[in-house]
Amino acid sequence: MVAVHTAEPGAPGELAERFEAVVAAEQRVEPRDWMPDAYRATLIRQIAQHAHSEIIGMQPEGNWLTRAPSLRRKAILLAKAQDEAGHGLYLYAAAETLGVDRAELTEKLISGRQKYSSIFNYPTLTFADVGVIGWLVDGAAICNQVPLCRCSYGPYARAMVRICKEESFHQRQGFELLMTLMRGTEAQQRMVQDAVDRWWWPSLMMFGPPDDDSPNTAQSMAWRIKRHTNDELRQRFVDMTLPQAQHLGVTLPDPELSWNEARGSWDFGEPDWSELQRVIKGQGPCNTQRIDRRRAAHEQGTWVREAAAAYASKRATAGKQATASKEKESDV
Ligand code: BYC
């Protein structure tokens, strides 16, 4: 059991009390407010990990951009990947309000000191994977992220509102793609079923380890960063997804799935938690490839960052000169 504390030992009493009162009253903690160091560190860890997931999450889908089966599907996929880049940027900006720099966070990602979601370490073998990512992965993301719109930290909560709106659009496009394939040939239907078989268990693992093995949940819930436990959200996802799977006509690869009348929920089997731990530790099918690609993109982008910084400093100097000459004019 993790010790839950809301105030920092030795924290300035009045400030700590105010922080606790704001959290308890469901108000927002803002960047200018005093906050416990551990609260700040937890938010940086979670928001950075979330931002990295959005950026790395473009890679599995990017694999299909040049091979989409039609112009329409290509335009949709391109727009989705662009949305994800945008989500990454909002989230890095939210993390920066906590006093960290985006360059530092990127450095930590590519040197393996910060994590990103386990789900993006699996390969996308067919175009049906694009649909299944939209349906299951974005569906899981929605279950996990809608409650984050009520997170106690203002900039993160506000970033999540727009992100969630776009995620639900992504989920519907995935479902629509899969419906189209399921109305197609037998080979297309088999392709969908194969993708569902490969992505189902990793999607359940996205919610994190089971509650009794989740060291951060108790404290994050006390601070109202997380609003539900990993297992609660996983159950919500299973309950939401089952009727959709039936509508699509696919089978979920879990023989233990059964409706529990008493609970009013679906019972389901245990994911292979050792697989989640292996993937988190860097031993998933695509971990090395994902980080190598991210590192290369970062290095190839050096000239863009340098040019943007030079342009910004030129504009700042021009702005200062314009203000100085205006002041001179008004002196005359
Ligand atoms: N993968 O105590 P726990 C998207 C780590 S983007 C990797 O339960 P916590 C999308 C965890 O960090 C999806 N690591 O932790 C994008 C911790 O290690 P550290 C990303 C995981 O933070 C593009 C340790 O295991 N979503 O949807 O209370 C296209 C113990 O876990 C994972 C977010 O980031 C995992 N699956 O809860 C399509 C949402 N699970 O950090 C879609 C925001 C756990 O102590 N994040 N770990 O070294 C969260 O809600 C929470 O951070 C988590 C984990 C539920 C993920």
UniProtKB/TrEMBL annotation:
GO cellular component: cytosol
Keyword Secreted in annotation: no
InterPro entries in the record: Aromatic_CoA_ox/epox, Ferritin-like, Ferritin-like_SF, PaaA, PaaA_PaaC
Pfam families listed in its UniProt record: PaaA_PaaC (PF05138)
EC number: 1.14.13.149
UniProtKB keywords: Oxidoreductase
GO molecular function, one term: phenylacetyl-CoA 1,2-epoxidase activity
Superkingdom as given in the UniProt entry: Bacteria
Ranges in coiled-coil conformation: none
Gene Ontology BP terms: phenylacetate catabolic process
Keyword Oxidoreductase attached: yes
PANTHER family to which the protein is assigned, alphabetical: 1,2-PHENYLACETYL-COA EPOXIDASE, SUBUNIT A, PHENYLACETIC ACID DEGRADATION PROTEIN PAA
NCBIfam families associated with the record: PA_CoA_Oxy1
Official protein name in the record: Ring-1,2-phenylacetyl-CoA epoxidase subunit PaaA
Organism: Kitasatospora kifunensis (Streptomyces kifunensis)
Lineage: Bacteria, Bacillati, Actinomycetota, Actinomycetes, Kitasatosporales
